[in-house]
Design a protein that fits this description.
Two copies of one chain form a homodimer. Chain A contains 13 helices and five strands. In chain A, helix 2 packs across helix 6. With about 250 residues, chain A is of the alpha+beta class. Helices cover about 50% and strands about 15% of the residues of chain A. The first copy, chain A, has a domain at about 1-165: 3-Layer(aba) Sandwich (NADH Oxidase), CATH 3.40.109.10. Strand 1 of chain A pairs parallel with strand 5 (about 175-180) of chain B.
Chain lengths: ~250, ~250
């Protein structure tokens, strides 16, 4: 278990082998054993294996080649629709059309996704998370036919690995952990925490390829730009509104 | 691994035994191996073991007894503060003061939390997720001294189990999984999916204790009420504003 966690690598190239139906079932089962708020199970998983449907989803994930190459996609959704329908059929008046309820359901869905990811890796499959899911939620809602009360929050591509990448660097543990209360970072501390990362050849190459002066500039000017973040923020907030989660 | 996932039970009673420092370290390490957007590691973990600090946090978690009884609390935060500080020290202009960036960091933090939860369970520890973290984020920010750019999104209580509860029911797998596109639920389907749950003696008892007619009413009228959700929604949105994530 802990080995599966420690050995995680993101896999972006997959073999052509389909993922067996029973394994897909095992993955869903692993998802459903996750902690869930009040045992309400405020999530749904949309399973995509059909080639045409993968092609329809690809533009929502910026046409990264793994979307159509992976034999299996799972889109994890915050879902209050099922719970609301149950309430209405049981003389109960649901009050879950607000931002807190979306947050609760989104957390439920992400915990499920990580259970599925680890169960997949434990079975020799490889996975990649697609952050594009929240950026392009509006399009994904249309393609997957998601009703009010349902919002996609993340996607996994899943398949047998067609590559064997090495473990990716991480900041030292003290960068992300604070004992008893948050100790804010001085410039000296930041320098120390990022020194190893900044010394790696792959990042030096990355800076050169992108014609930038620092690694941080590759993030701010190329990969995660303010103008994109702002426009996707507006879009995602309008999706929450449309899906009925902004009535507070 | 898959056994740890399938055997998960929420543990609310703990032995008095502290969690060893090396184990806490192993848990943090397991957290950092999780998938993270662009390898930015947009999260921080606040570790609480001090009795006085647990008492200070307890009201934010509605004074549930496990908060002070568990030897270890971990509060998982969406954190753009560290990344922003690094950008600013590297002549890069961060554009992450918006809702999409909060969502991205919150997803990062929740994936880390589930890695920590499973690593803990794999080591014989028990865990409980505290959904109260988003409800009471404002108070937690004060207590843990969280700067702008940091928002708590979930908390785990962790310790050696002082109880051995049985596995909790879940809806059938077909309730949460949709092949190729979302199939909305008809009343007949809802009846079928919830039949087993509604037949369980513990829930019948629960309805009686709460003087309600249906299980759904226990949720809507007692446990997760509209008025609370609405007021906590407003509070959480104001926290996002205060912490600098609503400038889109």
């Amino acid at each position: 278990m802990i080995d599966t966690i420690l050995d995680h690598r993101t896999i972006r190239k997959y073999k052509n082998t389909p993922v067996e139906k029973e394994i897909i079932n095992d993955l869903i089962k692993a998802g459903t054993r996750a902690s869930t708020t009040g045992n309400m199970q405020l999530y749904s998983i949309i399973i995509t294996t059909d080639e045409e449907n993968k092609k329809r989803l690809a533009p929502s994930h910026f046409n990264q080649s793994m979307i159509t190459e992976a034999p299996l996609l799972m889109t994890f959704c915050a879902d209050f629709n099922r719970f609301n329908k149950w309430c209405e059929l049981r003389k109960a008046k649901p009050g879950y059309d607000n931002f807190l309820s979306f947050t609760t359901a989104a957390i439920d869905a992400i915990i499920v996704a990580q259970n599925v990811a680890l169960a997949a890796e434990d079975k020799g499959l490889g996975i990649c998370y697609l952050g594009t899911t929240t950026y392009m939620a509006k399009n994904i809602i249309e393609i997957l036919n998601l009703p009010k009360g349902v919002v996609p929050v993340t996607t996994l591509t899943i398949g047998y690995p067609g590559e064997d990448p090495s473990l990716v660097d991480r900041l030292p543990l003290e960068a992300v952990s604070h004992y008893e209360s948050y100790k804010d970072y001085t410039p000296e501390v930041i320098d120390n925490l990022y020194r190893e990362k900044e010394s790696l050849d792959e990042y030096k190459e990355f800076i050169k390829e992108n014609n930038k002066e620092t690694l941080a500039q590759v993030f701010t000017d190329v990969r995660y730009k303010k103008e994109d973040n702002v426009s996707f923020s507006k879009l995602f907030l309008s999706v929450l509104e449309d899906q009925g989660f902004m009535n507070q």
